[in-house]
Amino acid sequence: MEYRNSPWFKIALLIIFLGFFSTIAGYYVDWLWFKSLALQSVFSTTLLNSIGLVTLVFILSGLFIWFNLHLTNRHKSSEPVAEEIPPEGEGRVFRSPDLLEWLKLIQGANTKWAFIVLSIVGAYMVSGALGDKWLTVQQFFNRVLFGIADPVFGMDIGFYFFNLSFYRFVYGILMGLLVLTLVLVGGIYFLKASTDFILDWDTPSFAKNHMAALLAAIFVLKAWDYRLKSFDILFSSHGVIYGATYADIFARLLAYKVLIFMALLLAVLIGANFYTKKFRWIIYGIGAWLVVAIIMGGIYPFVIQKFVVQPNEFNKEKPYIEAGIKFTQMAYELDEVDEREFKIDYKLNLDAIKDNHETINNIRLWDWEPLLDTYKSLQELRPYYVFNDVDIDRYVIDGRYRQVMLAAREMEQENLSSQAKTWINQRLMFTHGYGVVMSPVTEIAQEGFPLFFMKDIPPQFATDIKISRPEIYFGERTDTYVIVSTNQQEFDYPMGEINMYTTYQGDNGIKIQSWPRRLMLSWVLQDYKMLFSSDITNSSQVLMNRNILDRVKKIAPYLGYDADPYLVISSDGRLFWMMDGYTYSDRYPYSQPYDRNGNNYVRNAVKVVCDAYSGQMVFYVADSADPLIQTYQKIFPELYKPISEMPEDIRKHVRYPEDLLSIQADIYRSYHMSDPGVFYNKEDQWIIPSELIAGQEQQIDPYYIIMRLPGETDAEYILMLPYTPSGRPNMIAWMCARMDGLNYGKKLVFRFPKQETVYGPMQIESRINQDTEISRQLTLWNQKGSQVRRGNLVIIPINNSILYIEPLYLQAEASQMPELKRIIAAYGNKVVMEETLDKALTSIFGTGQTGVVPTAPSAPAGTGIQQLTQQARQYYDQAMESLKSGDWTGYGENLEKLNNAIKDLEALTR
């Protein structure tokens, strides 16, 4: 065959081969990656189910299309088709020469292969649209009941999560297949068309009966679609509450029942046409169906809403409002909220302050944004190190329960100088970050900088919390792959004028082992240098997908993840990342959605722990009562472990997620009103208040705090958020989530008596602005070229009183290093600004010991002036090295850093 010698044929074969090789290589490398984590079962379950479903749908669709195409051969035209234009006035069909060419492709010897090709293409179109629907199928076959029935149809909630989604998937496949088959069959009949087929619809023929049968099947399927849509009224947004309301029940549901009857009647009418031979009846029936759909689907519900519901809205909608409140509370676990009264008395005194010393000593004075700037200025130490963000957690430190802030020092290869951005440096040498910075939330050094519990390289420790494995190979900024265990030693950390080196000791990477595997890895990673590097041996390992969020999403993409993983130090000094995983859905009846995607159910069902050194991950089930996670456990039995298996030293650092409480608190603003009448009139609507940040109003985020809750004897770690009434600035309540020990996950709401006025955040901000002494000092600082940054306003309930604390930072315009200079405290009608928290509390409550940990003396060596001096020297040396090597870009960058360090020194010594 001559075409085999054609260069185009060879190019096509090469493209097909490369595509096939790329696919196989990609799957193989993915399998190696999952195998390195001992999660081969997750990969095989995903791959086999995906391929199995696509294959099954492809085969069944192909057979169905082929069978129907084969049936078209039974159609016999009653007259020959004119190949020339017939005389004017003669009612015959003329086929153009272009159509004749197409007709030749499906006639005679070509018929068999033409039908096979069309069947394959059609089956590919149907099966190619499946995507990740294998999970929908597996959820259906592994479904778990909720044990709660909806108030309209009496179906278990699990029906809407699992069954309905599966039925919708099946409907979509069948409808797409039927419509595609009808189009293909109709096209072939059109190519073979005769006068009776085109012009005389009352004349019976096999072709018309065949197409009528397919059309009847489509209308039967459409009737099923209407049945499925009738369940969707439980997710209606037309009424006073999310979910089915009066018009949905008595108009839209009735409309679906009528349309089901009409669709089935049409299917029967089309089927009866085999005997009646009245094709026009089909046209009339379809027209009637469209008219009924418009009237019953749109006009009738509008009339019911306008003339029946609106004149008597509350009475008509009351039972549905009750259902909406009940089911929304259950969807967000707000039915478990323990509401208590907070009796305000403003009798706080110095003795009470001392009695609550654990709360006072853990008031968060450092906000994460200014602290991050300070960490970067004082502790990044080298251009290639970076702090991504600051985490907050609690530890028992030197026998005391302390709240601390900490940040991981990660490697940022992009910050290497242009001369240093070689393949060896980026792939083999600069492989990991190093160490952690930790400081208490309340204490400050005299310079206005944080007091470090942990700092520097190599790590220096000021408490009994220490780290034994400071290398960070997996983190929030590790977006590139690296190759370890090579002949090239890895850069570990700088030590003065020299560098220290190390070799990776883990075994959780993808091992090279052989040249074919190296070829596969090189192809997938698009790195040809890996093939030829003599530093890489069969014992070398590839660490890929090192970004911790990318890792968890690759393993369990069906979960939602908190955007802020946090670092945990274990009892033996190892570093771990903790991530919160969520199950979520938009299929909870009568539940108000919390986002634009319509999701109205969420659970913090999973806690993921990732070793920062080895990358090993464990998925722990944190909410075993969640039916969604129970379903995933059945699908992936080897992936999930009970949280009881989490090591105790790690489990002590499990936090209630900010994102989850933000969602719950936002929903609770309206859905704390359990009385349908109060809810309907919005009599007690709440809002989440704002505070002033950088001169702009910004909604308060939930914040962690160690405090003794009213009625409790011990201080504990909680996450809290205040509420104010809608349209009024005073505080009405505050919500908190507990997280220590057996109290984890319990939510409390403390309501203030309505007859008492409790200042809200913006009222306190206004009082601060109106204080003449504070205002004068702020103006003076701003006039001297410094920028005043007001921190987060922290609301602290103590006994039966409320204390307000706001830190104030001062930052020179040319500096990137904020200093914590003042503490503003407010209580009752008093507002004061002092240099320390101790002085502020003394100013409000009188003289004496407040129990506050005193401000630290001058920072020890390595902090403040001395450390900035060392940094300036390092930047100068690096600038000189860049100058010698001709790296003008690096020279300019280091001069700029040197200039900033000098300005920071000036700010310290002014």
Summarize this structure as a short list of keywords or feature phrases.
alpha+beta, six-stranded mixed β-sheet, 44% helix, 910 residues, 32 strands, flat, single chain
In short:
With 910 residues, this protein is of the alpha+beta class. The chain has 27 helices and 32 strands.
- How many helices? 27
| Percent range for β-strand residues | 15-25%
Q: Return Rg in Å.
A: 35 Å
Q: pLDDT below 50 for ≥5 consecutive residues: which ranges?
A: 78-82, 853-863
Mean of the pLDDT scores? 88
Structural class: alpha+beta
What is the molecular shape?
flat
Distance between the termini: 89 Å
Helix content: 40-55%
Explain this structure to me?
The protein has 910 residues and is of the alpha+beta class. Among the domains are: 224-331, no CATH class; 338-361 and 668-851, no CATH class; 546-655, no CATH class; 864-910. The chain has 27 helices and 32 strands. Strands 1, 21, 24, 25, 26 and 27 form a six-stranded mixed β-sheet that branches. Strands 15, 16, 17, 18, 19 and 20 form a six-stranded mixed β-sheet that branches. Strands 28, 29, 30, 31 and 32 form a five-stranded antiparallel β-sheet that branches. A hairpin with a 5-residue loop joins strand 18 (601-611) and strand 19. The N and C termini lie far apart (89 Å).
